[in-house]
Amino acid sequence: MDVVENFHDWTASEWIRRIPLDIEDDRVSLWDLLGIAGGLGLDTATRVEFISHCLRSLLDAGAVPVEPTMWAWPPFRRTDRFGTKRDEIVENVIADWQARGGGDLEWGEYPFTFPENFEIQDNAEWRCVNEARLRRLFPELDWD
């Protein structure tokens, strides 16, 4: 996907690859991806393609679709509402969003996070697991 415009100094391709970095101990949602697509100035068809690529990037990095648990701990719980396989999840999330009109969303809708964000309660263990994943995904970044 080649889009010339940059958003926060990243091209669309860079956003697709690096979107898992935005999860950390929280989540990335379709709402976030729509904001990035808007910042890149993508038209409707390219926006859907971009979102599809971003969702695949998140899932390939190990993220899973979740639902918020509101004020309980952990703050998320995994959901199979959109399926269990990568392409099935991507297609169903986009189809569900488009069935609702395909427009803007409320903050945090259609969230994805890493399993350790709701499975691991020990901060030191969480940091080790998260850092190992990010080092594997992004070996070119300076980790020292």
What is the helix content? 40-55%
The first-to-last residue Cα distance is: 31 Å
State the shape.
globular
Low-confidence runs (pLDDT<50, min 5 residues)?
none
Structural class: alpha+beta
Strand order of the largest sheet: 1-4-2-3
Characterise this structure.
This protein is an alpha+beta fold and 144 residues long. It has one domain (12-137). The chain is built from 6 helices and 4 strands. A 4-stranded antiparallel sheet has the order 1-4-2-3. The chain is globular and about 40 Å long. It is 47% helix and 9% strand.
List keywords for this structure.
single chain, 144 residues, alpha+beta, four-stranded antiparallel sheet, 9% strand, globular
Quick overview of this protein structure:
The chain has 144 residues and is α+β, with helices and mostly antiparallel strands.
What is the fold's blueprint, element by element?
Elements (H helix, E strand, L loop, with lengths): L11 H7 L9 E2 H11 L3 H17 L3 E5 L7 E3 L7 H14 L11 E3 L2 H4 L3 H15 L7
Helix pairs in contact: 1-3, 2-3, 3-4
